[in-house]
Amino acid sequence: MATHEAMARINENYLKLQAGYLFPEIGRRVGAFQKKNPDAAVIKLGIGDVTRPLVPAVLEAFHAAVEEMGTDAGFRGYGPEQGYGFLVDLIREHDYAARGVEIAADEIFVSDGSKCDSGNIQEIFGIGNVVALADPVYPVYLDTNVMAGRTGEADDQGRYGGIVYMPAVAENGFNPEPPSVRADLVYLCSPNNPTGAVSTREQLARWVDYARQNDAVILFDAAYEGFIADPSLPHSIYEVEGAREVAIEFRSFSKSAGFTGTRCAFTVVPKTVMGKTASGQSVSLNDLWNRRQTTKFNGVSYPVQQAAAAVYTPEGRQQTGEIVRFYMENARLIREGLSASGLEVYGGENAPYIWFRTPGGLTSWDFFDRLLEKTQVVGTPGSGFGPSGEGYFRLSAFNSRENVEEAIARVTRTSW
Ligand code: MLT
Q1: How confident is residue 4, by pLDDT bands cut at 50, 70 and 90?
Q2: Cβ contacts of residue 90 below 8 Å, gap of 6+?
Q3: What pLDDT sits at residue 2?
């Protein structure tokens, strides 16, 4: 029998994490509530998961590509790990060149999701790097750095040692300024999950300056850019001068084209973004990410990439645009309904998330439980996104009109 010493050792950094990832924990609580109240009509505005089906243009291309795979001439085995040229070229043209940004084909890496990419990117960086994060923010950035061992333990408010937290609160418009201390890796998310705030060009320019002055790399998550309605707001960090030297960008088809279950995204790593070895030698992060992806990833399936390519056809753009407008109308209804009931509400104008202060000073989780009990509406507790999210709450705009109207009616007639 194996001795204690001979057993497989675990990565103990995992033990520093909070017990469960935020969304499964919400699922667990909702499941327990439903078990106790099997007839309750629960409305889920918690996880940001889309509800509208794939649009006809996407579906048609998806079907056609599946058919092709069943023919001798059209069958494909492994594709390029970085994505097929037909999709990469469409991304270059529509997402970048059309906005005046030059991105080369070999700077784009098609993948199965921004969650995976924004979680995996930290692997190409040394363990000693100092990480700066907005607080609150999408939990994947922090958790993956905890898993890698780039932090100390969490304190009783959930703040991990070694992380530079940048509070994003009502007082700074949920757009923190660059910190006064040095950081090597800076995670930014705009439009922001969870606050719905969007950085202006000027704000992003200050981050680019910070990165240049500190030899830092910005990891810019733009998974929600498709929801930006204000034409003055940037969709890509590369719209800012100098960003090509310091930023990596994550984009996704998940939310704007309904691909959460279909899986397609891409990451841009310009060849001009460099990191350093301990001895000071410059190394291309594009080379490292390519090496990482070709070793650990075999690409997105051909039919899924054809489905994603169809998003860029005139029909695809029009049809996905309609869905985005549908969700944003939900966001408006939630935002205005909550405001009219006296709550302090943010976001929801250029992002599918509505962020508000919990009534009566309730903690985020207390409000979660009370909301579920009193209205059978599920949201996401702000503290799940970071300590500065305590006392806030997020609702997502992804649901049917009927459910959104019903949820808001229930919430606004409830006293807390
Ligand atoms: C969320 O609700 O924050 C999203 O579902 C996160 C994600 O896209 O992984």
Answers
A1: low
A2: 309, 312
A3: 57
CATH architecture for the domain at 58-312: 3-Layer(aba) Sandwich (3.40)
Q: Closest ligand 1 atom, CA of 23?
A: 2
For residue 107, report the distance from its CA to the centre of ligand 1, in Å: 25
Class in CATH terms, 20-49+315-412: alpha beta
Q: Kindly state the helix (H) or strand (E) to which residue 217 belongs, with its residue range.
A: strand 217-221
**Residue 369 burial by Cβ neighbours in a 10 Å radius (0-12, 13-18, 19+):** middle
Distance (Å) from CA 194 to ligand 1 centroid? 9
Atom of ligand 1 nearest to the CA of 223: 8
| Ligand 1 atom, smallest distance to 260 CA | 8
Provide the residue ranges of all domains of the chain, joining segments of one domain with +.
20-49+315-412, 58-312
* Pocket residues: Cβ below 6 A from ligand 1: 47-49, 115, 138, 193
**Is the whole-model pTM more than 0.70?**
yes
Report the separation in Å between the CA atom of 225 and the middle of ligand 1, taken as the mean of its atom positions: 14
Is the bond preceding residue 194 a cis peptide, omega within 30 degrees? yes
Q: State whether residue 177 is helix, strand or coil.
A: coil
- Each residue of 128-161: pLDDT tens digit? 999 999 999 999 999 999 999 999 999 988 899 9
CA distance 39 to 24: 22
Q: How high is the mean pLDDT of the chain?
A: 96
CA 179 to CA 12: how far, in whole Å?
30
pLDDT digits over 264-278, tens only? 999 999 999 999 999
- Beta strand 247-252 with 217-221 is parallel
